[in-house]
Amino acid sequence: MRTRSEKALFDGKIASVLDSLDAAHSAFLEEDFGGPSLHFHIESLKAAENRDFERFAEQIYALLPAWGMHRMGPGGSKVLNFQPFKDSLQRVRPIAEQLMDKRLETLESNSWRDLENVFRGITCMRSETSLVGNSKVMAHRLPHLVPPVDRNTPSSCSMVTATSRMGWTMNGRCLRACCEGFSTPYCKPLPLGRRRPSGWHTRQNILLGTALL
Do residues 75 and 121 make contact, with C-beta atoms less than 8 angstroms apart? Predict the structure, then answer.
């Protein structure tokens, strides 16, 4: 559970963004996003919505470096080679497809277990760190359920930066805390799938998540 101070920080940051969501999102686009980051984001969402597995695997694999998850040379994050990554997506495909029509506000305990199993089953990074990379994959595969988590995302686990030292259970707890933090009470002002400025067409969780970071 979140401490009172963590909850106050999380709620305050979300309230601030919701007060000026369009302005925050436009500023975010102008400063950081466009080019391949935008292109592969849109194409990944389209492929997931169309249940086109082959295209989704290729587009989301391209998105990860475009969203800063791969660094050339020594040091820095590294995305796994394509075939092992695709194989991991294939293994969780049946569960992920069952979750596509679910919504956070009505998610039952067995669906939370399924969501964690998808999280556990995806392998996208060479390192042990899983929360940040896996959440970006899941945010495009299941955009109604999962926000893209970054190292600056507030959560009940306090420090997402510690994920490299966490086991699967702790990472799963962080993921659930972040999902619940972006749930319906924070997203009521914006209809799902609303078209955003500069060609962005995204879900509430991704929009609010990127605006917060």
Answer: no
Q: Name which of 209, 76, 207, 75 is nearest 153 in CA terms.
A: 209
Tell me the residue type at 211.
A
| Torsional sign, CA 8, 28, 195, 178 | negative
Max CA pair span of the chain: 45
Domain range enclosing 197: 4-18+52-212
Q: Please report, to the nearest 10 degrees, the dihedral formed by the alpha carbons of residues 191, 23, 206, 184 taken in order.
A: -40
Indicate the pTM of the whole model. Answer: 0.70
Domain count of the chain?
1
**Encoding tokens for residue 194?**
């609303």
Q: Say if 30 falls within a structural domain.
A: no
Q: Does residue 177 contact residue 156 with C-beta atoms inside 8 Å?
A: yes
Is 29 inside any structural domain? Answer: no
Q: Which residues pair with 149 in a beta bridge?
A: none
Q: Per residue in 24-73, pLDDT tens?
A: 666 666 666 678 988 999 999 999 999 999 999 999 999 999 998 887 87
Phi, psi of 126 (to 5 degrees): -75, -30
